[in-house]
Amino acid sequence: METVVLIAVIILMIGVGMWWIHLLNAQHDARIEAYRFSTPLPRPPGLPDDTGRRAHHTDADR
After folding, report:
1. What are phi and psi of 58, to 5 degrees?
2. Which of 16, 30, 35, 50 could disulfide-pair with 55, CB 3.0 to 4.6 Å?
3. HEC string of the chain?
4. Is 38 helix (H, G, I), strand (E, B) or coil?
5. Tell me: the pLDDT tens digits for 1-30?
6. CB count, 10 Å around CB of 19?
7. 20 vs 26: CA distance, rounded Å
8. Nearest C-alpha neighbor of 43 from the set 51, 55, 53
9. Distance between the two ends of the chain, CA-based, in angstroms?
């Protein structure tokens, strides 16, 4: 009988943990959705279109 109670308590605690994680994820998603990102700054004149690091590496002979 004690084994059955222990297994039931373990299953119950796993369920409570899953529910809690679900609530925390929902809160986190709501915070991310509510955050307003600023508009990107305009590109300074005279810069090429692609200024990323990959644009500067031309190691095609590797």
Report:
1. -125, 50
2. 50
3. CHHHHHHHHHHHHHHHHHHHHHHHHHHHHHHHHHCCCCCCCCCCCCCCCCCCHHHHCCCCCC
4. coil
5. 999 999 999 999 999 999 999 999 999 998
6. 10
7. 10
8. 51
9. 67
Q: Which residues contact 55 (CB under 8 A, 6 or more apart)?
A: 48
Please identify which residue in the block is written with the tokens 């990102």: 37
| Residue in 31, 42, 61 with CA at minimum distance from that of residue 23 | 31
Residues 12, 19 contacting (CB under 8 angstroms): no
User: To the nearest 10°, the Cα dihedral for 24, 30, 34, 38?
Assistant: 70
pTM value is 0.51
Q: Any idea how long the chain is?
A: 62
